[in-house]
Amino acid sequence: MTRAAVLDAVNAPLTLTEIELPEPGPGQVRIRLAAAGVCHSDLSLTNGTLRQPVPAVLGHEGAGVVVSVGEGVTSVAPGAEVILNWAPACGGCHFCTRLNEPWLCPHANDATTVAYARDATGRALYPGLSVAAFAEETVVPERAVLPLPAGVPLLDAALLGCAVLTGYGAVHHSARVREGESVVVVGLGGVGLAVLQSARIAGAERVIAVDVSPGKEELARTCGATDFLVASDSTARDVRALTAGLGADVAVECVGLAETIRTAWGATRRGGRTTVVGIGGREEKVSFSALELFHFARTLSGCVYGNCDPARELPVLAEHVRTGALDLGALVTGRIGLADIPDAFRAMADGRGGRALVVF
Fold this sequence. Notes:
This protein has 360 residues and is α/β, with parallel strands linked by helices. The protein has eleven helices and 18 strands. Helix 4 (163-174) crosses helix 5 (190-202). The longest helix is centred in the C-terminal third of the chain and has 14 residues, at 310-323.
């Protein structure tokens, strides 16, 4: 038996309970978690913004140590330190092979619909976003496991599994920030803070951080912001004032609300790039007039998992960690236990702090 935080139903509170994991079958890996980040996507699973069969063990941003492996597993062995990949591409579909866009693989979340464990009553449980990291141990497909590169601390490495891959990819693959450009980042949760650091790594000259909480200014500047704005009705105008009246070359939106997407769009210069990372609900409708689309000639794009291939990107991120360019610890504003996840959800909903890290 192993302890886990279980979501019994949409909008229900998490329940800390004992669950029974099977031994890994063919192509599966059992992992003892060292740490798991509390991501806004987990909150979106609890309230139904993202679909997930329930009851489920949530948590998708994790790192740990391999306990055992099933038949046919060759990429890792017991004792190996690993990072969990919550959207493992199948490697054989049109997106994986013809387009080389594994982040759009339609099979990446197939495991979410397959029960992987049982609770003490025998009830089947599903793995939240494939990996079920809010538990002391989990069992996942081999393709959901990535070896941890050398020189990266295991606990903080959990953040590489979602926040950092997403933030880094948004900057380097979606927005394609170039040296000397200006970047505005709207929303400073774990992903937004990773975007700030990634913009600094890309050589952005001006990095403007925007958040509803004035208390995040110090954290934002630690992560690379040159300027900080408290979100308001005048945010777009304030960004233009900081960029010679033009607007930022790039805006990265990390909230997922219609209002903040419009703010990011309005803060971008003519011909600039606006990248939306935040996951919004179906009720969030964003509208643009035909004239402004023509006049501003901006590019608006979505961004899934940073438009990254995690296996290819992890060595790059590890090198940035080793050189000190990427500070994983700076993203963490709380180290908590499993029982503290509901408090972390409330803090996230209130816009407080950066990334909470469950440490086992």
